[in-house]
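Handout for the seminar on molecular recognition.
Each group receives one record of this type.
Step one: identify the two inputs.
Step two: read the structure output and locate the region that could contact adenosine-5'-triphosphate.
Step three: write two sentences on what you found, then compare them with the reference statements printed after the record.
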Amino acid sequence: MNLIVSAIGQGLLWAVLGIGLFLTFRILDFPDMTVEGTFPLGAATCAAAIANGMSPLMATLLATGVGALAGLVTALLYTKGKIPILLAGILVMTACYSINLRIMGRANVSLMGKITLFKLPFFAHLPMYFDSVFLGLIVVTLVTILMIYFLQTDLGQAFIATGDNDVMARSIGINTDNMQIMGLMLSNGLIGLGGALVAQNDGYADVNMGIGIIVIALASIIIGEVVFGELTLNQRLVAVTCGSILYRFVLLIVLQLGFSANDLNLISSIVLALCMMLPVFQKHLNLRHLLKRGLTHD
Amino acid sequence: MTKPLLEMKNIVTTVNTNTPEQKTILNHLNLTINEGDFITVLGSNGAGKSTLFNTIGGNLRVNGGKILLHGQDITQTSEEKRTQFLSRVFQDPKMGTAPRMTVAENLLLALHRGERRRLVPRRLNRELPRFKSLTASMHNGLDTRLKTPTENLSGGQRQALSFLMATLKRPELLLLDEHTAALDPKTSQQLMQLTDDRITTEKLTCLMITHQLEDALKYGNRLIVLHQGQIVYDIAGEAKAQLTAEELYQFFADTE
Ligand SMILES: Nc1ncnc2c1ncn2[C@@H]1O[C@H](COP(=O)(O)OP(=O)(O)OP(=O)(O)O)[C@@H](O)[C@H]1O
Ligand SMILES: [Mg+2]
């Protein structure tokens, strides 16, 4: 029971990353590698700020802002510096590693004994792991509602159009550079927020905690898409959160099978690769048909 | 009626500047577009017709010369700013619409052409009745597919939609770059007819590139021919109306 509650809590917290990546990966159609740097950047900023006595709420907001700044750098390298987006992201991600070490002053910072968002008096009477479920739910709901609102505004529609067809967007007067800058900042801001939340939940920030983040965030997007199929844009945002929770369940099962936490990155990659190859399998094997036949055994 | 809308003076457009592939495409080109002109543009492949449009639209910066709008210098005005007075339809049906957005959403985007996009609700439903009657006027089933992503439309429907989008908010200058070229003959003729109707009733100023000599003769009040980056033929009004296909063929045979 505890494990399941914990998985749901983790899924909710990590869903913020999925939603952030959705903005670049799905809407702008950008493979933005910055996230592997922004996630630990958010964690490091938040942990260092809390360790230095900042209130956890302010530290979390600061981490979000710093994440957005990292996104801004990638965006400027791409739009103004004309560096391909993949490389621009890798440059910032690599630079973030050093910056994170600077921010923390060492490879990791512990939050033992510090007040974090999860240890606010408000959560004190909740049973174990329910604090992350509760806080995750609040944050994810807030972020999802804000995103749904944003995407249905004139600005949001211009943002979507930029990702869909930038030639057309420019031809009707949309400043596509600005839209891409905004998207990368929003996305990395959310990733920074995710980093701050995960660091507070885990009780530490570590300079290496960004490795494989993009795979995990993508997994929540793609599991959501595979499970729920055709959806409207708003539903797809919610599906990311469901995908994120499902992904945690998959990990839970895998751990129960006897794999260790060190195997998680391997398993994440396998899960993601399988999900992404599903359409190919379906075409070649007619999987649905086989499944049906197998179940009805006529 | 004969007030100049857009003047291009001594325009030089070069691509790949400072590389071995440097190439001058528009070579000291002069063109005055008057208000109300419907100009058909002819010229062989590579003559520089699309480049002329990209130069007017601001996608390409000129290396020499001036562009004036109502007498005001807009040579340095950005592509986004120019969409306040200008709209275009591309040859490729894929270029003109956002594929994953619906027909109605695309129309709504075009309704705000050239405007600042704000953080205000988009109010799509308010515009739906108008979009419905507008698309119905195209007589190609677009009105029943307002909620369909444009990637699921036929090429003809997409071009009709692109054309609607370009004229939804009245442009001072409309640029059509072979916008019916990718369509089958029947659909192409239908869209040409609709184009002509709309341009004449709304009294739009328009430049239309085409490779169909018949269309170039049939439509518009003025015809220009581009050759090696210059306008080598410019005929308007009664003289254009009198022009025959034979004479035009002959002219092309001579310029080769
Ligand atoms: N960005 C560019 N870089 C290099 N060459 C270019 C570029 N744009 C155009 N050209 C070249 O300039 C010439 C004119 O091209 P343009 O597209 O304007 O011709 P066009 O008259 O529209 O031809 P078509 O009838 O085939 O559409 C061509 O030789 C083309 O290869
Ligand atoms: Mg062309």
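Reference statements: Residues 48 and 105 of chain A are 9 Å apart (CA to CA). The pocket of magnesium ion (ligand 2) is lined by residues B 49-50, 177 (CB under 6 Å).
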